[in-house]
Amino acid sequence: MTNITSISIKDSYAQTNGHGRMHYLEAGSGETVILIHTNGGSAHQYKESMTSLAQNYRVIAWDMPGHGDSDPLIRHYSIEDYCAALAAFMDALEIPVAHISGCSCGGTISVGFAGLYHHRTLSTAIVETPFRTDDEWGARWDHVEGNFGIPTQSAEEVGHRLSNATEALVTRWNIDRNKAGGKLMVSVMWAMRQFDVNAGILNIRRPAMILYGAKGPTIAMRDRPEKSVPQITITVLPASGHFPMLDEPLAFANTLGQFFKRATA
């Protein structure tokens, strides 16, 4: 096991085939873990968690296309497009297979990737991912546009979503959301709405885990994957909301690490 104090985070770019230049953070060595952030976020969401995970794994936090410091998008991307972009990113870094974990929209991408690219997936951790139908998305679309159509959010608004909304975290939150922009963030929500995650999860062939925050908005839908894919383990972090990597970064990292270890034992 590597001493956590000796772990440094590399800040770099990869030039991909067909999806532009992509930014990422990297630490550690061993089996590769790829972490996918939430809509309007960036790789920075995982900095504290990845340092812990990097004691045993090569951990890469990816800036999705159009987000963070990755190249901007000039068209709408479907979930399948984001999956293809992730595969191209792995090609650029010569990563044949990896453990994949994503939160919220990142979780939806993880589900799609595990089905479409199962041969490149060691395991899948699906974090705080909504299992809504198109009708359910439509019924709450005004809320979706209000949340993502306006990039900058007040400290109070961020405080409703995070357990410890420090000044530095709120600043980072708004930097990332403004880099993405309202148009792209709403486009990502359309991608989630138009991808049938309830059907997609049935296509997962490798070990998988669903992770919820007990205080988050998606745990109310846990009965859906419980009924359709009872073989997939469900884990709950008691002090987390929708962003467990920010609310409980060490508990989040430990939970993922234990799952990845079991998945390839």
SS content category: alpha/beta
Share of β-strand residues: 15-25%
Shape: globular
How many DSSP H or I helices? Answer: 12
Low confidence ranges: none
Got a strand count?
8
First CA to last CA: what distance? 17 Å
Please tell me the CATH architecture by its name: 3-Layer(aba) Sandwich
Task: Please give the domain count.
Answer: 1
**CATH H-level superfamily title:** Alpha/Beta hydrolase fold, catalytic domain
Strand count, sense and barrel status of the largest sheet are: 8 strands, mixed
Give a description of the structure.
The chain has 265 residues and is α/β, with parallel strands linked by helices. It has one domain (4-263): Alpha/Beta hydrolase fold, catalytic domain (Rossmann fold), CATH 3.40.50.1820. It is built from twelve helices and eight strands. The protein has helices at 47-53, 79-92, 105-116, 134-139, 141-148, 155-159, 167-180, 182-194, 197-200, 223-228, 244-247, 249-263, and strands at 10-15, 21-27, 32-36, 58-62, 98-103, 121-127, 208-213, 233-237. The chain has an eight-stranded mixed sheet with strand order 1-2-4-3-5-6-7-8. A hairpin with a 5-residue loop joins strand 1 and strand 2 (21-27). Helix 1 (47-53) packs across helix 12 and helix 2 (79-92) crosses helix 3 (105-116). The chain is globular. The mean pLDDT is 96.
